[in-house]
Amino acid sequence: MVNSLPMRQVHLDFHTSPAIRDVGKEFDARHFAATMKRAHVNSVTVFAKCHHGHLYYNTRRPERHPGLKRGLDLLGAQIESLHREGIRAPIYLSVQCDEYAANTHPEWVARGANLVAVKGSDSVFKPGWQILDMSSPYQDFLVEQALEVLKQFRPVDGLFFDMCWDQPSTTKWAIAGMLKDKLNPESEDDRAKYAHQVSLRYMRRLHDLAKTHSKQGTVYFNSRPLSGLEEDLSCMTQTEIEALPSGGWGYMYFPKNVRFVRTLHKPYLGMTARFHKGWADFGGLKSGAALEYETSQMMAHGAGCSIGDQMHPRGVLDSAAYDLIGKAYERVEAREAWLVGAKSVAEIGVLSHASGDGDEGVTRMLTQLKHQFNFISESSDWEEYELLVLPDAISVSKSMSARLRRHVAVGKAVLATGTSGLSSDGKKVIWDNLGVKPMGFSPFTVTYVRFGREIGGGIPATDHVMYDRSIRVVPTRGAVSLAAVVEPYFERGWDHFSSHYQTPPDKPSRFSAAVLNGRVAHIPFPVFGSYANHANLACRWLVAAMIDRLIPEPLVRIKAPSSTEATVARQGKRTIVHLLQYCPERRGKDLDLIEDVVPLHDVELSLKLKKKPTCVYRLNPSPEAIEFDYREGRVNTVLAKILGHEMVVFEA
Question: Does the pLDDT at position 398 exceed 90?
């Protein structure tokens, strides 16, 4: 999807307790907007309603924040001042978190099967948001608030609805709704199904309401599971990937999910924050190197950028935070001409698990191998991908089998791992192109791989441990085994073990660890989930060897450390390679941080192109020409230095 969202956004949180009595006391509209302008911001999400359930504009509704300065239309003043500077101002409303409504109408709070009120903490005596039931009259209460905002600030630039997950409940309204829909309230599955239906209904209601009053405004519902976006997107104009790396999401969440989101034909952006940790970490300021990496990663994946902040209750922005944001967004703005309208390129399509560790393992492994890939679903368009990957446990239906056969018939390739293409017990072949005869799960929890001569070059000549159970397979006629399974002396147990860890290898078995059947490859281990959990190099070496045979001429080749990330985008006739070299470190017990940017030197880059480019240059941030040669359909160049984020442009 080609992006059309503002590239330099701020999500300005303002969750402010009613116990704070000087709200907006020091707000200066001109200074507020000027600060955003100096920080190169072109869109700010501002608050109509926070999780405390209070409103920040002039209204006769009793939910207006009791500490908001008398006569101050904080939201209106923010919007007006931002618009005066040419800055967009979509409006935020909290959905299932509303302390005012929960305290005023406790009967509207969602209840579990044990009738206990649902709360974002495990004790009534700990801070935590109460969660509202959207099948209760609270939904109408929220719609009235949204309607007032839409009328009062018409036309709005957009509405951002937050805290919108599927919330099961057992209130009288939820039970009545389930019975009406012929669902069983006693069933946990039916309660979840009804919660999903409620979400789809209220999202449709609010979307249609917003579009009635502001046809051009954006509408987004946050906190939805990204795996369900294909169904949700009819109610949304864009996708926003909330992923504060130090706030619980980690540095894998954005790159994993953006590779699915960018296939969904809607504009999308990534959201990080300026905080050292998570939301509302007042006084916590992220390092410049970390924010540079996070925004660079968004650019590299074709996403707009959003940086979260929270304004002080008195209405004053933190000048140090906007110095930090400004430096990051100055870089983005200088590169924007090469970002707007650029579309990410991928030659590998990975059938997504949507759960488990497989997708994370795929993301880590293929990123380290510098391959260009997207996550896709069974209903996606597969034709653009040279290789399809079925990681670890993809269930193959009859219709999928037919599509896979057609994919191979036109000369394209498939790599399946674990039980993908087999029955779940590993005893039957579901997709017969795999070239293997399966014999069920190995009796051994841990086995070993001995690489064959064809794929063992450069790999240490030893039996490499595989920490997760495989399927026993042998190649069928015409297929080739490229690695052997070496089994241990015996299965380790409490009464039968040897030494400290796994039982040592005995001798090669007749079972294969890697089978190649023409344009189809099979690895009987769950290598991707295993890689996510163990970072076992043998898993990566196996996958790399098979992909080398299935895509002998990959889109990019780079001689750089495995920590270097590479993505490719096309913008008209222009091809852009993004190279990122930042290394998050475990600096706290559960905290990965980036503080230092270490340069790389003399990095060899090779890009597959049909025609010789007219010129090649790097952005620094203005173009600097670099030498190249063109041989056998590849452009080859050497980058003297990479410091953090490098953009190399190939002009047709």
Answer: yes
Judge contact between 528 and 546, C-beta under 8 A: no
Judged by DSSP in three states, 293 sits in helix
* 34 token code pair: 């000027």
Taking residue 649's Cβ as centre, other Cβ atoms within 10 Å add up to 19
Tokens describing residue 454 = 């064809």
CATH 3.40.50.880 correct for 346-550: yes
- Residue 3 clears pLDDT 70, i.e. is over it: no
Other Cβ atoms closer than 10 A to 478: 8
Whether the pLDDT of residue 346 is over 70: the answer is: yes
Token pair for 283: 């006084």
Start-to-end CA distance of the chain, whole Å, equals 22
Across 298-399, where does the E strand assignment appear? Answer: 304-310, 343-344, 348-351, 373-376, 387-390
Sequence letter at residue 51: H
Closest CA to 227 of 260, 255, 198: 260
CB atoms within 10 A of CB 280: 15
Please check the confidence at residue 353 and state whether its pLDDT lies above 90: no
Left (φ > 0), alpha (ψ -120 to 50) or beta: where does 282 sit? beta
Where in the chain are the domains? 8-343, 346-550, 556-651
| Tokens linked to 48 | 């109509």
Element (H, E) at 210: helix 188-213
Name the residue among 349, 431, 430 with its Cα closest to residue 389: 349
pLDDT score for 228:
87
Tokens of 410: 């036109």
Of 119-123, 313-317, 360-364, 412-416, the poorest mean pLDDT is in 119-123
8 A C-beta contact, residue 287 and residue 404: no
- By mean pLDDT, which of 149-158, 266-275, 376-385, 543-552 is the weakest? 376-385
Mean pLDDT of 72-82: 98
* Nearest alpha-carbon partner for 17 in 276, 312, 405: 312
Q: Dig out the tokens for 425 from the structure.
A: 């017990």
- CA angle, 184 as apex, 179 and 189 as ends, to 5°? 130
Look at domain 8-343 and name its CATH class.
alpha beta
pTM, two decimals, is 0.96
What pLDDT is stored for residue 466 in this prediction?
98
pLDDT at 566 exceeding the cut of 60: yes
Q: What is the mean pLDDT of residues 412-420?
A: 98
Q: What is the pLDDT of residue 2?
A: 52
Instruction: Reduce the DSSP state of residue 480 to 3 states and report it.
Output: strand
Asked whether the beta carbons of 346 and 385 are under 8 A apart, the reply is yes
Class in CATH terms, 556-651: mainly beta
Beta strands, E only, 287-412 = 304-310, 343-344, 348-351, 373-376, 387-390
> Which of 506, 459, 511 shows the shortest CA–CA distance to 481?
511
Of 483, 480, 350, whose CA–CA distance to 415 is shortest? 350
User: Residues 137-150: what's their mean pLDDT?
Assistant: 98
The whole-number pLDDT of residue 481 equals 98
Average pLDDT rounded to a whole number, residues 353-369: 91
Record the tokens describing residue 453, joined without a space. Answer: 């001569």
User: Which residue matches tokens 């890697």?
Assistant: 514
Decide: helix, strand or coil at residue 641.
strand
Longest dimension (CA), the chain: 83
